[in-house]
Design a protein that fits this description.
single chain; mainly alpha; 44% helix
Length: 115
């Protein structure tokens, strides 16, 4: 990450508090770089490029925010920009089904009964 002058969060997001795509990035959603932007791509700033560089290896959203030292809400907006330009992929955690939760609880119960 490069050092640059301090810029207010609202300036980085152009006043937006939510991603333009409407995407709600969970803290554990895994982000991966899918493509490199064309030179002079509109709306892609140095913070976007930092995120793309670090996500060459997949990272969760929370880790991205920590590494770029920006608030989570700002990182979510920046990720929305990148997703809109198809420069990243977002892999969401799979939701557990009620059946798998019940099976896990039964296994725990059987294990406790075996003690």
């Amino acid at each position: 990450m490069t050092r640059r002058p301090i810029v207010r969060s609202y300036a980085l997001t152009r006043g937006r508090a939510r991603p333009a795509t409407g995407e709600a990035f969970d803290m554990i959603t895994i982000i991966s770089t899918a493509a490199r932007p064309r030179s002079g791509s509109p709306g892609i700033g140095p913070e976007h490029l930092d995120i793309l560089e670090m996500c060459l290896r997949p990272l969760p959203v929370a880790e991205v925010a920590a590494r770029v030292s920006l608030p989570l809400v700002v990182v979510r907006v920046l990720l929305g920009d990148l997703l809109h330009h198809r420069l990243i992929t977002a892999t969401r955690p799979q939701q557990e089904s009620a059946l798998s939760k019940e099976r896990l609880l039964r296994e725990v119960l059987h294990g406790l009964q075996a003690l």
